[in-house]
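Run N-acetyltransferase domain-containing protein through structure prediction, thanks.
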Amino acid sequence: MSVKLRPATPEDIPVLQHWDAQPHVIAATGSDAPPDWIEDIGLTSPAFQTLIGEQGGRPVGVVQIIDPAGEPTRYWGDCEHNLRAIDIWIGEPDCLGQGLGTQMMTQAIERCFAAPEVTAILIDPLETNTDAQRFYRRLGFEEVGPRRFGDDDCTVMRLTRAGWEGRALPGQ
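Sure, done. The structure for N-acetyltransferase domain-containing protein is below.
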């Protein structure tokens, strides 16, 4: 069964807060404070989207897509225009390892590149999260290098539009 992305709503806040307390989510998000879901879902800026991945009506994960040059927290600092950055996580442990993240990430990437001005997508998995890095490499992301965000050592990775459009599809 496929996963569909939809905009997050205030009704999603309890499940998002529940996911924030899951050990696998904590391990993947480092020392960052959990998101302020009330604020994030309330943002109506084109620079910031929070999406819920659902499978058969069940919420299974969350994706945030931002314009790193235009989002208000300046998390990425000064960076070039025409980029997007993605954060993604699967909420419940029983949803891991089923391809749901791949479906969600593929849809998020397609959303990003639907805007013709977007040239590349950034992600910042923890340096210690080698499983996530391997996952992103399979999608075509390439390592840019290490970077410290707050107290966390991360590996910045980048997917160009050309890299996405030129990727080998399964069976090719």
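Helices lie at 13-20, 23-29, 37-42, 100-114, 130-138, 161-165.
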